[in-house]
Amino acid sequence: MSKPIVIAVCNQKGGCGKTTTVAETGACLAMGGAKVLGIDLDHQCNYTEALGHLDEETPGAYELLTGKKRLEEVVLESKVQNLYFVPASIDLSAAESELMGMIGREHQLRIALAGAMDGKYDYILLDNPPNLGVVVMNALTATDFMVVPVQVYKFARRGLDRITNFYDNVKHFLNPGIKDWMVLPTLLDFRREKDVIMLQKLRDQYGKKVFTSQIHVNSKILESQEVGSPVVVMDKYGVGAKQYKSFACELAEWVARVGVAS
Ligand SMILES: Nc1ncnc2c1ncn2[C@@H]1O[C@H](COP(=O)(O)OP(=O)(O)O)[C@@H](O)[C@H]1O
Ligand SMILES: [Mg+2]
């Protein structure tokens, strides 16, 4: 039976498109026929809300991370066929401090996901909070791949090096099986000259570690999150949907290629 491919979307900065990338990519992969599970690990619940789920009482990632519930008890069906999710709630803000007191705290998510290794899902996507705390350590300990969305306008080498050093440490101490990371340029706006310059700088400095796909600022993406539906469903022929579909294809090819090689 095949094991799902786990992909963590991380960046210690907020507002760089992590949640949007998880929401849109998950929907694209599911619409392409894959079985996808998205997990909201951010107590701000933006991914949960982007899927139209507004009930804060539903058990979810907090219960999963602290061992209070099993995976199958917290998975919900989304409105998109083949796309399932684990919601976040405000309780998740307590997970950091609860985990700090636990032995094996970085391994809780990996252990919880072991229940999903039975061929039920093809992909598990992890949406992370904007920090490098113990929840993100759990995500990277449970994952095969890391995707780092970078808001091109605000790209700073130091910030990106911080998350990749964090990845290296997790690989060394916690998850030697983690396979690779790549960067996705997001929120591009070519009406700003700085975006053109910064994109070039990002591609020059990180070369093949940057996806060919890139995501532009698109008002339909904002609108779709307000109505609780991915843009690839709400405006499926629009530019935002096209760019995320192209990214989802590139992502699927990358993980398949690296997965086979390792
Ligand atoms: N391509 C895009 N075009 C327009 N708005 C976007 C785009 N991507 C994200 N946003 C908006 O920018 C904000 C931050 O994006 P989000 O995905 O929540 O980032 P993060 O999860 O990294 O904090 C949100 O309001 C989101 O709706
Ligand atoms: Mg977010």
Description:
The longest helix has 23 residues. Helix 1 packs across helix 12. The model has no long low-confidence stretch (mean pLDDT 95). The two termini are 18 Å apart. Helices cover 44% and strands 13% of the residues. With 262 residues, the chain is of the alpha/beta class. It has a seven-stranded mixed sheet, sandwiched between helices. It has a single domain, classed as Rossmann fold. The site of adenosine-5'-diphosphate has 17 residues, from helix 1 and helix 10.
Labels describing this entry:
262 residues, alpha/beta, Rossmann fold, seven-stranded mixed β-sheet, 12 helices, 7 strands, binds adenosine-5'-diphosphate, binds magnesium ion
Strand content: 5-15%
Provide the helix percentage: 40-55%
Assign an overall shape. Answer: globular
Total E-strand runs: 7
CATH topology descriptor:
Rossmann fold
> What does the average pLDDT come to?
95
Question: Largest sheet at a glance?
Answer: 7 strands, mixed
Q: Which ligands accompany this protein?
A: adenosine-5'-diphosphate, magnesium ion
Q: Which class in CATH terms?
A: Alpha Beta
In angstroms, what is the radius of gyration?
A: 17 Å
Low-confidence stretches: none
One letter per element, helices H and strands E, the order comes to EHEHHHEEHHEHEHEHHHH
For the record, the count of structural domains works out to 1
Give the N-to-C terminal Cα separation: 18 Å
Structural class: alpha/beta
Helix tally equals: 12
| CATH level-4 homologous superfamily | P-loop containing nucleotide triphosphate hydrolases
Q: Largest beta sheet: what is the strand line-up?
A: 3-4-2-5-1-6-7
- The CATH architecture is 3-Layer(aba) Sandwich
